[in-house]
């Protein structure tokens, strides 16, 4: 009944011109605003050249969920137009994708290829998906089997890469190779190795019980710790990527996926209460560098916050994480209300903007506090705006 009411509500606002009063659904408002600006459409910011971008893949994932919930064909058409900008009719992927970089980032657009093939049966989308999946066959790995984030990051596993690579890996396996127990075991291993090598232990300074941004298995990076080679800080968005990957891959895990589901459920249930407890008690949201709360130059960052809201509300809704006292949902509601009151900016043309999303976070240099707080904060950064659509979809299903 709640879902039916939500769909009915959206039906009353989906066909309003964007210049009219603000839609009652933040998910719709945010998605429509991004579409008006031409974001996430398979082209660069100038709208001229094809670009294979994980941000676009994240936004397309949100549009797919919004389309499935509302039936508004606009969202499906936008996904298809965006993918058609980066996939030739013969299925070759063009734009900025270079196979030999062995970067996991571009792979996040792959689930859109698979979705479009399932919906349209056009072979070009399957061909493009095969190309991305084949990259993983040669992806460099640590001696333990963890995919390197990129070829140029020697022996390094990053939390970001789990969202980029493993969501594609699981989506592809679910769609085309569901009986491949070796693939499911490999996906399980990717999540577990990352968790085991980056989880803060009880003796860590500024212990949050959460996960460092990444690790260097070779211990040669300037930031690598003496014990497991992990990076120095817990960066909010890296953990957000990993949290979203947990819930999104759990949905894809079939009964024959071996230890995948119990492994991911265990990790999710370790992290969920720790994420809840890491929120600032006054505002209810999270610091950019979670291991340095309140430190000068640290700030409340928006993209990581809405990633947590999406992941934890979805986890509770689907029964992955028990919430008997309602404290997780209550904390996510508090955070969401802060988000809409502080990070949503109404514009005079009827669109909305999204603020306080950090532009980038990397382990290519020092990986320390000063690095993270020195990165620019962007308006309408799609990594944050797409996650806000996802968080809004979950929040609005509570109502």
Structure commentary:
InterPro entries: 6-hairpin_glycosidase_sf, 6hp_glycosidase-like_sf, Glyco_hydro_88, PolySaccharide_Degr_Enz. Helices cover 51% and strands 4% of the residues. It is mainly alpha-helical and 399 residues long. The protein has a single domain (2-398), classed as Glycosyltransferase, CATH 1.50.10. Strands 1-2 form a two-stranded antiparallel sheet. The chain has a two-stranded antiparallel sheet with strand order 3-4. A two-stranded antiparallel ribbon has the order 5-6. Strand 3 (344-346) and strand 4 (352-354) form a beta hairpin. Helix 2 (26-36) packs antiparallel against helix 14 (382-398), helix 3 (54-70) packs antiparallel against helix 4 and helix 11 packs antiparallel against helix 12. The longest helix is centred in the last third of the chain and has 19 residues, at 260-278.
């Amino acid at each position: 009944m709640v879902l039916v009411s939500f769909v009915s509500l959206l039906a009353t606002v989906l066909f309003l011109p964007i210049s009219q009063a603000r839609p009652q659904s933040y998910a719709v408002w945010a998605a429509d605003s991004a579409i008006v600006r031409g974001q996430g459409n398979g082209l660069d910011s100038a709208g001229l050249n094809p670009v294979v971008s994980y941000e676009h893949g994240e936004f397309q994932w949100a549009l797919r969920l919004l389309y499935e919930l509302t039936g508004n064909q606009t969202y499906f058409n936008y996904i298809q137009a965006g993918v058609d900008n980066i996939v030739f009719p013969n299925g070759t992927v063009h734009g900025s994708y270079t196979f030999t970089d062995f970067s996991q980032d571009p792979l996040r657009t792959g689930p859109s290829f698979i979705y479009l093939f399932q919906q349209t049966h056009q072979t070009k989308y399957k061909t493009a998906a095969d190309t991305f999946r084949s990259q993983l066959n040669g992806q460099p790995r640590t001696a333990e089997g963890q995919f390197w984030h990129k070829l140029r990051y020697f022996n390094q596993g990053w939390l970001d890469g789990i969202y980029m690579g493993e969501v594609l890996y699981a989506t592809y396996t679910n769609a085309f190779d569901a009986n491949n127990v070796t693939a499911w075991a490999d996906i399980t291993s990717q999540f577990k190795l990352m968790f085991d090598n980056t989880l803060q232990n009880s003796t860590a300074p500024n212990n949050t019980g959460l996960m460092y941004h990444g690790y260097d298995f070779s211990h040669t990076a300037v930031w690598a710790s003496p014990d497991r080679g992990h990076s120095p800080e817990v960066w909010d968005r890296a953990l957000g990527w990993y949290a979203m990957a947990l819930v999104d891959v759990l949905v894809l895990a079939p009964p024959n996926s071996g230890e995948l589901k119990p492994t991911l459920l265990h990790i999710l249930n370790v992290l969920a209460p720790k994420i809840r407890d890491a929120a600032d008690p006054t505002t209810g949201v999270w610091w950019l560098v979670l291991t340095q709360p309140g430190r000068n130059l640290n700030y409340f960052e928006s993209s990581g916050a809405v990633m947590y809201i999406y992941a934890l509300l979805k986890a509770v809704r689907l029964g992955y994480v028990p919430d008997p006292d309602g404290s997780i949902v209550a904390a996510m509601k508090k955070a969401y209300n802060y988000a809409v009151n502080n990070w949503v900016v109404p514009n005079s043309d009827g669109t909305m903007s999204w603020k306080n999303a950090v532009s980038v976070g990397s382990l290519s240099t020092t990986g320390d506090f000063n690095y993270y707080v020195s990165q620019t904060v962007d308006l309408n950064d799609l990594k944050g705006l797409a996650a806000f659509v996802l968080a809004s979809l979950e929040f609005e299903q509570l109502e």
